[in-house]
């Protein structure tokens, strides 16, 4: 039986059969300024010739799936003939859901997967659990890991022991990629050019030029300098979607430090915005969000767990989600954690080659594991027992036994 793995993120859907490669596709619909009557779904974004003023219709709001009409249309598109040609009665699906998901959302998802699409079996699971499974598969000797999942809506810090998530240590920071893009739009609109309607373009600007500063105050001093002494400043050429299809950062040697460009290119001049926007992940209080940054939250999460486990978590921190792609993110996080953690404990932050698809890869591995058949909910079981059977996926043996097994073998683990 084929297994379809769908990491159903709030912005990107990572989807593919367990024996194939992953496809990363927008999990939303779009309307463009030029053709307002037509709605584009998922990867039909490529068909829009002028994405300026692009309007997003998202199935997720504040991290939870609330717009089922949009989500159905995206799934219809992904499962349909143009994309994956899913044969539902012969297919099992692994699909991700948020932490502490509402039971009403879970029940709606069960109904759609089993009653509308008629999947043979389904497994609902957190993206972090798949990321942890991927990590434990590559490092079987490790007992614990701490998944830092910084995505579109939130940043979650989740501790895992032998594939079992420890709920008392889960933390959430209300800062994600959406907030960073919106903040960058506000700064640029206030300082240079009105771009509040240009989510698509400014999101690209954020990905192209933003980075995490290793020395925030020093970089801030450099950003205030004039002319060529300002090594932080970059000129970003905005797309016009005719001659320039995609925006780009001008090479340093081509930058003009006095006067304007003569070519008619529309440019943004970015200085401290480049590092001040990602800084919100480390200091949300900068924009009035009264929460701890990622390093302090990690320390707080680990502190809530038994002391004997602390070394195992600090040396196995795994970064997933799009925000971990900012240059300097891993180095800054490791440096700040080092200053917060007792000197005798090792600190190691692991950044996968592709943090966006890391959880999907975990789902791919899980689909081929011998425990998979015990974890899924079959359609026959659902039809017979309803939501009771599918309230939560059955855990594999090592996950279910993880915590008690850890306590029973504490001495052997520590030595």
Automatic annotation (TrEMBL):
<dbReference type="InterPro" id="IPR043129">
    <property type="entry name" value="ATPase_NBD"/>
</dbReference>
<protein>
    <recommendedName>
        <fullName>Actin-related protein 6</fullName>
    </recommendedName>
</protein>
<comment type="similarity">
    <text>Belongs to the actin family. ARP6 subfamily.</text>
</comment>
<dbReference type="InterPro" id="IPR004000">
    <property type="entry name" value="Actin"/>
</dbReference>
<keyword id="KW-0539">Nucleus</keyword>
<feature type="region of interest" description="Disordered">
    <location>
        <begin position="388"/>
        <end position="415"/>
    </location>
</feature>
<keyword id="KW-0206">Cytoskeleton</keyword>
<dbReference type="GO" id="GO:0005634">
    <property type="term" value="C:nucleus"/>
</dbReference>
<dbReference type="GO" id="GO:0005856">
    <property type="term" value="C:cytoskeleton"/>
</dbReference>
<dbReference type="Pfam" id="PF00022">
    <property type="entry name" value="Actin"/>
</dbReference>
<keyword id="KW-0963">Cytoplasm</keyword>
